[in-house]
Amino acid sequence: MLRLTVLLTLLPCAALAGEQWSWVKVANTVNAWETSQGKAEVSIDGEKFEARLLWDDNPRDARITLSGTIRNGKVVVKELVHNSDYSGSTYTGTYESKRWEGFADGAGGEVVTLSDGWGMIGLTRRIPK
């Protein structure tokens, strides 16, 4: 199995190596909600935010790429949907990191929640103790 490496240079709270990121996208199709999900590669370097949302059945290829900025926990990204005629959207949202004291199996987690006013994208991962 291919082991994916997550590059993350972030605020001191998340500088520790973490586990694999996961993503979910919820799209509004007017008549229903359509969901897709998979693993992700996330890179935060200073104020630069990049994420490759990988195909669930082919984790080598990006289904969606998110590129933008992160400042004071606020995230703004442009979505690029690969192999599609859809030009993508601009998403805004937040980054949060939490630690839970007293739990032996995990020290915390990170989450990015994004919306374009029509649909939502979420990224999350567990931060080991």
Describe the structure.
By secondary structure, the chain is an all-beta fold. Helices cover 0% and strands 56% of the residues. It contains no helices and 8 strands. The protein has strands spanning 21-28, 33-45, 48-54, 62-71, 74-81, 90-99, 108-115, 120-127. Strands 1-2-3-4-5-6-7-8 form an 8-stranded antiparallel barrel. Residues 1-16 have low confidence and may be disordered.
Keyword list:
129 residues, mainly beta
Strand content: over 45%
User: What topology, given as strand order, has the largest sheet?
Assistant: 1-2-3-4-5-6-7-8
Order of helices and strands: EEEEEEEE
What spatial form do the alpha-carbon principal axes imply?
globular
Query: Which structural class fits the helix and strand makeup?
Result: mainly beta
Helix content: under 10%
Helical region count? Answer: 0
What's the oligomerization state? single chain
Quick structural gist:
With 129 residues, the protein is an all-beta fold.
